[in-house]
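#struct-pred
JK: can someone run the complex with protoporphyrin IX containing FE? inputs below
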Amino acid sequence: MGISLAFNFSGVPFLGFAPFFGTNPQDTFLTLGKKYGNVFSLYMGPKLTIILNDYEAIKAAFSGQADIFGARADSFVFRYISTGEDGKLHGIGMTEGEVWKTNRRFMLQTFRDLGMGKSKLQDKILEEAEHMTSWFAKHHGQPFDPHPKVLMSVSNVICTLCFGKRFEPEDPEFVRLLENNQEFSKLLAQSGPLQAYPSLRFFPGSVKAAWNAIVQINRQMIDTMTAKIQEHRNTYDSNETRDYIDKFLHHQAAEAASPNGIQPPFYDEGLKRNLSAFFGAGTETTAVTLYWGLLFMLHNPHVQTKIHQELDNTVGAGKPITIDDRPKLPYLEAVCRETQRLANVTPLGVLRANTEETTLLGYRIPKRCFVIPNFKSVNVDPKLWTDPLTFNPNRFLDGQGKVFEPAHFMPFSIGKRVCVGEALARMEIFLFFANIMQSFLIRPPRDSDIPSTDEYTTGISCRPAPFKIEAVPR
Ligand code: HEM
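RT: done, structure tokens with the ligand placed:
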């Protein structure tokens, strides 16, 4: 069986279906899925693109054929940002085979050694949570937009892990890194035509302008990471491990002393790209999840009351909430899960590809198609969730009131490329959210409408339209 084409035409000349994606392609795909089913295809420029539009399709591809669908799509912009001075791909994001596997294993081991899931890292997250809640308190119950501070606090956790240092909010280097990251996410979202037809970057117009901005920001990011690595080399001590860079340099030194010398996964070019990827992926996604969490609290005061009751009946006030408190706070944890489900922070994951021709649920898929999982189709599927558009944390609690995750809950994706930062993100979401809830009642500004949950835009992540809250100390 061939693949059903989403339209009986391939879109407009050159650009294919890309111009019809809209600002939230996940919603466009949901609509198309109603007519064309759970596996359908369309053209992004010349590139045949397969949309996996329900749980069965995503599971069959990413789990059932994990090796075949474990590759990244060779899209022009992602290839550009992952290519080193030597013209080769580097780092975890776009590579495949041994370089990717080694990078992934090394990252997971290093983050674990640096305290992921343990008290060492928890202390850092709690320090950032303390900065965040103090800043909330400074508004004395007056309205403010929490996003900038949430972004900085989350970002400082990944900065501590990668660079061994946190930044003060006004530090120009930090401000520039965060601005670049936000801008980059926006530009990547607009880069559909470029991915399809790279030569468009030579023609005057918005595509060329976007491309020039991508090149400039990428250069600045790589320069910053190069400077960070150099700073570490200048102060290097083989007996000390301050962060991910030090771990990488230790490994490089060991390989340099071995007969085969430094191997490709441990080239500086890979280190620079991994630092950029961890900073980018580790900042925006987690911060936006917390931002959605606060928005859901504005809409669901009854949920917030239950969180406060649970907190008051178990851990109380006077000490920060830690990971050890987690078993006592199943409702709060269920709220974190429900936030991730309904927020759809990464609705389309990161572009994948299939390494060889295959058959998926009866459809023939040619080799090396672009593959897009629509995770939102899973998160709002009424066959999987009762009343899916309602914010209801109880769906993540079993009969005994314990946290329960169905297999179709997959905010970090599934399969071989599943998010490598999952453990860190889960820890951060719980600790930041729990400590905000312990300190404040979050409510909408007086005399204004509750900001909508239906207004959002999707770049790398899906973010609600800016909104303000009042944080009333408890
Ligand atoms: C709420 C927070 C987060 C969400 C929702 C999220 C989601 C995702 C998703 C959906 C993917 C694509 C997986 C696939 O292709 O199937 C991904 C990949 C990735 N994520 Fe995350 N992520 C989060 C936090 C983080 C953090 C904190 C880091 C920090 C290091 C991180 C680093 C990465 C990297 C490096 C990849 C690429 C992995 C690979 O290609 O092997 N993410 N993430």
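RT: quick notes.
The chain has a mean pLDDT of 92.
The radius of gyration is 22 Å.
JK: thanks, will look after standup
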